[in-house]
Design a protein that fits this description.
Blueprint (H helix, E strand, L loop, with lengths): L3 H7 L20 H18 L5 E4 L2 E5 L16 H7 L3 E6 H5 L5 H15 L1 H11 L4 H27 L5 H12 L10 H28 L3 H31 L1 H13 L12 H12 L3 H14 L6 H9 L4 H4 L2 H5 L7 H5 L13
Antiparallel strand pairs: 1-2, 2-3
Helix pairs in contact: 2-7, 2-10, 5-7, 5-12, 6-7, 7-10, 9-10, 9-11, 10-11, 13-14
The structure holds fe (ii) ion (2 copies).
One fe (ii) ion binds next to helix 7.
Length: 363
């Protein structure tokens, strides 16, 4: 216990400190930002605003069913256990850490999950840039809070699985989190619309990656882990849908600019995970060989992204971009990628030689 005299002795004299200083600066908000902001707010409020569908808390995952409200009925105020029963605001499912601990996932799957978790852990940078770029666009700026809220759980669920299945300790997860924060993520494209389109493509690919990972977990008998990952995947699909709507709203204002932006993003597209790999070559091989990516799949993802934007993207030009996409440096990995899941032994990847079997020096 500290005596009152000692506390007083350590107290700073507030009268001698700097004065309270809160600054504000004028911001120019264009008419277009206002119109686009209100349009996207209508989209967000009408289609994408939702209460949390699930969350990770105290070492378990809770899934919720939203309140069932009949058309023209006001959403009920839930005040008692009886209301909960009556309206079905219930935890419909729960996966405990013990449930997950009874399952096993391979070392490769755990490694891929750890890499995906790092992307989710980049949230401070994603949010920082996103809210700054769209500060004056009401709908997008407001929807980022929900989006960020949902993304935080993706990291949590990956962490819980790694922990429960014995692939990471809490200390390792904490260290890995801060290792990720040692480098910032900066937006890959110059204009806000390009970065918005990038988000749409990235969410779509992330959805596909999580589905692929869930399938492998199922093959390994880890059905609860797979279930949890499928829920994450469904969030990513939901996110893609919202970004697509915002992009389309922008394209209604500037179709030509939006088209060029979409083609540029597709042509230069890379997943953010590439920057978060501790060893890029080893981990790229590991991700693609574990979840079984190949050239056709990547092309199809891009093709679908550009097709979904066909209201303003010329599809002949889109096809040209898709066909020319596959990066030259990836072509050298093509052989590895075509092999079925886990074709590259982890032992080889753990301590990579100066050159791997494809003659590629590790990054
Ligand atoms: Fe996510
Ligand atoms: Fe997402």
């Amino acid at each position: 216990m500290t005596s009152r005299a000692e506390t007083r002795a350590r107290t700073v004299d507030f009268r001698a400190g700097p004065p309270y200083s809160e600054e504000t600066h004028p911001v120019e908000i264009t008419l277009e930002q206002k119109a686009f902001g209100l349009e996207t707010d209508r989209i967000y409020e009408g289609l994408f605003k939702r209460s949390t569908p699930w969350l990770v808390q105290k070492g378990r995952i809770l899934y919720f069913r939203p309140v069932q409200v009949k058309p023209n009925e006001d959403p009920p105020v839930i005040q008692s256990e009886n209301d909960v029963k009556r309206y079905g605001v219930i935890t419909v499912d729960e996966i405990s850490g013990e449930d997950l601990a009874r399952e096993q996932i391979s070392k490769d799957v755990a490694a891929v999950l750890r890499i995906f978790k790092r992307v989710e852990d980049n949230l401070p940078d994603f949010s920082r840039h996103a809210t700054a770029a769209f500060r004056n666009v009401k709908g997008i700026s407001r929807s980022y809070y929900q989006w960020g809220r949902e993304e935080t759980e993706h990291s949590n669920v990956a962490g819980l699985i790694l922990l429960a299945t014995g692939h990471s300790t809490q200390e390792e997860l904490d260290d890995d989190y801060y290792k990720t924060q040692e480098n910032t993520w900066e937006p890959p494209f110059e204009t806000p619309i390009e970065n918005l389109i990038y988000a749409m493509f990235q969410e779509g690919n992330t959805h596909g990656n999580y589905i692929a990972l869930a399938k492998i977990m199922e093959e390994q008998g880890a059905v609860k882990c797979a279930y949890a990952i499928r829920q994450v995947a469904s969030d990513e699909a939901f996110h893609r849908a919202s970004y697509r709507r915002y992009v389309e709203a922008y394209a209604r204002l500037h179709p030509q600019e939006a088209q060029e932006a979409a083609l540029n993003v597709a042509w230069n597209f890379r997943m953010p995970a590439l920057h978060l790999m501790r060893n890029r070559t080893r981990d790229t091989v590991r991700v693609v060989s574990t979840i079984g990516y190949n050239k056709e799949e990547v092309e199809n993802l891009l093709r679908r992204g550009l097709k979904d934007l066909s209201s303003f993207v010329n599809q002949e030009r889109a096809e040209e971009v898709v066909r020319g996409y596959w990066p030259a440096e990836m072509a050298r990995l093509n052989e590895t990628m075509r092999k079925p899941a886990s074709a590259v032994p982890v032992s080889e990847l753990e301590s990579p030689p100066t050159q791997n079997r494809n003659g590629i020096a590790p990054a």
